[in-house]
Amino acid sequence: MSARTKPQTPPIIIEQAGLSLGGRELWQGLNLTVAPGEFLAVLGPNGSGKTSLLRALLGLTELTAGSIQIFGGPPAAGRSRIGYIPQQKGFDPDLSIRGRDLVHFGLDGNRYGFSFHGRRTATRVNQAIEAVGAGAFADAPVGLLSGGEQQRLRVAQALLSEPDLLLCDEPLLSLDLSRQQAVSALIDARRRRAGTAVVFVTHDINPILPMVDRVLYLVGNRWAVGKPDAILTSEHLSELYNAAVDVMRLHGRILVVAAGESGPEEQGHHHQAGHKPGETA
């Protein structure tokens, strides 16, 4: 570091954090610092608190214990520097706003809601729309679009805001393989170009595995964080799940299999990294 370069404040500092919801403890004693430009994948079964972690980072869910700092301050104070891709939920079919209007809110609207105020910056909006391959349906009402089309528009909106921290909650759902690759590449390019930190919740790490710096794995009220090769092992996941788990690498992909005498296929245990048997995204 040169004498003229000032150290950057970490986008996220979590210290001894615990969270309980509905009387159930999701995680406890969580310590995590995310560096500028770091790509962190968050894995774990349904109900392990992945989405709740993002809500806590946004200041929408209060911790039971410990603290979170966003750019050195409370989560709510850092929202203007955060881009957020929420978990996919369909819009009302009667919603008449166009796809490009939804994207435009990333510039002059509230990132967590809708605003119809602000100046038009058509060039930037069009570029964001084209980058996610949404040009063909950008002028259609969002309520009439498919889940995958809506999700591409949400990604464009989040990236258009040029965030310093990007929180992604299953952003690849409903996208085919080629679109998954394209969207993942866009997110990765943003963080490499601008030093944007990325927290990426997913059930399948494979589309983003080459980009991931570290993994945070949540299981029950336990957690582990580290490099993918260190966390995604049979020994480590068996310890986290408190059950026998096999991690296999096939043709560059990671598969997590719950061990059983009759085999993973017969028991229905064959699943992607982070996906617990019998659960859906």
Overall mean pLDDT: 84
The class by helix and strand makeup works out as alpha/beta
| Annotation, overall tally of beta strands | 12
- Sheet with most strands: strand arrangement: 5-6-7-3-8-9
The main β sheet shows up as: 6 strands, mixed
Explain what this protein looks like in three dimensions:
This protein has eight helices and twelve strands. With 281 residues, it is of the alpha/beta class. It has a single domain (12-272), classed as P-loop containing nucleotide triphosphate hydrolases (Rossmann fold), CATH 3.40.50.300. Strands 5-6-7-3-8-9 form a six-stranded mixed β-sheet, with helices on both faces. A three-stranded antiparallel β-sheet has the order 2-1-4, with helices on one face. A three-stranded antiparallel β-sheet has the order 10-11-12. A hairpin with a 2-residue loop joins strand 10 and strand 11. Helix 2 (99-108) runs parallel beside helix 4 (147-160) and helix 3 crosses helix 4. The longest helix has 18 residues, at 177-194. The chain is globular and about 50 Å long.
Offer a quick outline of the entry:
Helices cover 27% and strands 26% of the residues. With 281 residues, it is of the alpha/beta class.
Write the layout of secondary structure elements.
Blueprint: E1 12-21, E2 24-34, E3 39-43, H1 50-57, E4 65-70, E5 82-85, H2 99-108, H3 122-131, H4 147-160, E6 165-169, H5 177-194, E7 197-201, E8 214-219, E9 222-226, H6 228-231, H7 234-241, E10 245-250, E11 253-258, H8 264-267, E12 270-272
Helix pairs in contact: 2-4, 3-4
